[in-house]
Amino acid sequence: MGSRASEPDGPDPRRVVQIVTTQRAGTGRRGSGYRVSGDAVLTAAHVVSDAVSVRLRFVTEDGGTTELPGEQAWADSASDIAVLKIARDASTDGLCAAEVSPVRFAQVAQPVDCEAVGFPRFKLRPDTVSPDRDAPTWYRDSHHARGTTTPLANLRAGSLEISVHPPEYDPEPGRSPWEGMSGAVVWSGGCVIGVVVEHHRSDGLGRLAASQVKRWYRLTPAQVGRLNELIGLPARADRLAQLPPPSRPVTSELDDAPEVWESVRRLAREVDTQWRHEEQRRRVHAPYPLAVRFRCTPTRNLFDHWENIRKAPPGTEPGSLPLDGRLDQITEVYGSIPSRRLVVLGEAGSGKTILTLRFVLDWLRTRAPGERVPVIFGLGAWDPSTTSLDDWMCGQLVRDYPFLGAPSSHGGMAADVLLDENKILPVLDGFDEIADGLHGAALRVLSRTATPLLLTSRSAEYSRAVTETCVLTDAAVMELEGLTVDDYAGYLHRASQPAAEGGTHSTVWGPVLAKLREQPGNPGAANLAEVLTTPLMVALARTVYSDSPRRDPSELLDTTRFTSPEALQDHLLAAFVPAVYDPTPTGRGTGHRPRWHPERAQRWLEYLAAHLDQLDTHNLAWWTLGTTMRRSSRILAVGFLAALAFGLTMGIGNLPVDLVATSNGLRFAIERGLMVGLLHGLVVGLVFGLAYGAMSRSTPVEPSRVRIQFFGGDRERRATSACRFKLGLGAGLPTALVLVLIDRGVVEPLGFDDGLNGGLAGAALFPLEVGLGTGLVLGIMAWLEAPIDIKSEVSASDLLSTNRKNVIFHMLTWMLVIGLPAGLAHGLEAGPVRGLLAGLVFGVEAAFGGGLGYGLSFTAWGQWVALSRMWLPLTGRLPWAVISFLDDAHERGVLRQTGAVYQFRHARLRDHLAHVFQERHPAHRSSAPGMAVREPLAPEQRLDSGDTPQSFINGNLSGSTHGDDI
């Protein structure tokens, strides 16, 4: 009774079952079945109907039998199929736990050969080893029926006709010789295509009728989902194998391109890994999934005609679809919609994002090769008035999965190809988060495309957009329902530690849940019941009270403290961050995690929320963290750091040169170094500060998604290289000329001429050398840049590391290109020692002055260093280890990660923290009291307006937390 390791290519005799039942009337019935999983047996429903006991008899390899108890797990009389479970006890635990290879299911389109193994009545045999030879016992042996099936027969009945070799004679004209064959699984091509259910005597002895697999999809989505759990039936009919296998269709050259399928495979794996880890971090199903339910919206004007949704032929009225179900049935419900276009509506925190996550994971789990890959897109970043949907999705794909930015041999990027070839299933989360005034435009764009999609939105925003424009074409609409006490009572109970007193089933939630059930009219209970209708609030309540043993949820019933449901919601939102950063030994800030101070973590998160609110986005990207500072402050910070880097390098570099090449002594070298470093640093800082100021007028510099590649290069890269060379030449010449004028017009008149300026020749050659060197560096870097390869991983830290490596290589290139020629020139003039020293000094100055200055002004990593790693931590807005803090907040469930960016786990939490920030800093409040800023602030309202570094530090690290409840 073992199992084979590989998928079966036909019936396995060790898994064939004879079913023996006892009816309520005391009579017995025989049937057949097949073990399809560790403890599940597939059979016909009428075999076990009205049975009071079921025995499952297996034939062993030596010809003996093993009989085990069974029980009915699922049955449907209309399709006449049932699933039995091997009853678990000490004797069957090992059998049920044994590995059993899954069966495959198929539908039949043309006549095919088939087979079935069962125990029909005509195989009745006397037992030759019976102890009583005068009255022997009888048994039914197995029969291996082989034949063909003709799918166009029995069209009205809907059954599958099986033509087999008939028995030689009919032993009892009043009874069918095939009696007992019912429940036998019908196989073809290594797949299950049906279950034998009937023998019509009028058809003759050589024909049987089977319940065919493809007709099982007329069951409700809930029933199909249950069969998926029990026997592995695919969630959708279009995922059944086709028999006979379809001939290979004529496909485009692109369909056969290995790079396309490799990209699809890679994307499916990364999406699955990304969201599976996110689900685990958020403890979505711990201790078990909440019973989130949905139903077809009763508001008729929100969805299209059922004829369009069901793709019905003209003149037909197919009626509505059953869209009611639970969270774990979302893929089945979506698969039952022929148009594959679905809108999910729900209020804030009702579980829309969790539904999209569950949909993606379940779809990928049962996804057939070649099917679309579901990808979640946060719609809040889309502006339909300026960017097409495909272009925007392409940009999001490249941001979150950089390997899709690789060039394709068919033109464009891999992301473009996947979109063009319909390999992406868009899961568009947060229609309501699109900027106000653009919902109608977005809905019109989505209606003009026939792309399958799943869209989520709050009800009010979607309803308003439909009223102003039109329904989303071909799309069904369903709504998420609120949770009840019964839905979350067990969840909160099992997530809490057992109470020290009160029995093994008592927890801190016991009295609260009892009051919610027994006194629903009590004001405190009514307020709390209304709040806990959303999964978000249940999850927050679990974190604040179940995970913190020092907290008592009974306080949530106090109407003097919490006068309304809104007050309770504010309390849970305010208490969430302190709860997850609890520094006590039983808190979550122990073990390998950094132990951030709760109050400081709260202030840093408030700043991040206000930063996102000011940018009007949900995406927290490391390269935009400093962009909400005043532009003048950013220019000052970048210019100061560029001046500091170049000035220090220039000043220190002058010391060995003057000490070795002149006889002026140490004091002269130090004084000259200080003066030259200060003046040159000011010039370079001014240049790079102005350059950054010009760049910062547009959108923030995004991180470079390129790597350094020494070989290769195409026409586009050559053109970019030439353009960069001209830019470097144009910027380097005037900068070097100003430096020469400072040396000749300021340094020398003050008595600090070291005699190494080269005279007129040096004054003429220096600007040319710097200009050509700068142009060469920029041109070489443009030539060497190539898109990140397909093996690159996507995360904030990985993208940051790639950009840091690029900037460091950039600095080395400055050092070699400018320092090496300078050394050679001085070596020919003054000897190898001075030449080597001059080349080293010039190279280091170029690397730190030019390379680092360029990085600070023109690269995302440089601006990250200048603003997020230095200025914002220095002023107390963020910690010094910013990425570690973000990663830790992600692990604690405060943030979630979407590709290379972070988001707050819910918009309600972000808005709450942003509002608290505005309360702490009244100068930054929005015009509407009590509401977070929803539009970009004017320059005079930027987050750092009026805040000195010290005052901000004092405000961040001292004072009480928001509200008395923390």
From TrEMBL:
Signal peptide: none annotated. The chain crosses the membrane at residues 635-653, 673-695, 725-742, 762-786, 807-824, 836-861. Pfam families: NACHT, Trypsin_2. Residues 941-966 are annotated as: Disordered. Residues 340-434 form the NACHT domain. Keywords: Membrane, Transmembrane, Transmembrane helix. The keyword Transmembrane helix applies. InterPro entries: NACHT_NTPase, P-loop_NTPase, Peptidase_S1_PA, Peptidase_S1_PA_chymotrypsin. Residues 947-966 have a biased composition (Polar residues). SUPFAM superfamilies: P-loop containing nucleoside triphosphate hydrolases, Trypsin-like serine proteases. This is NACHT domain-containing protein.
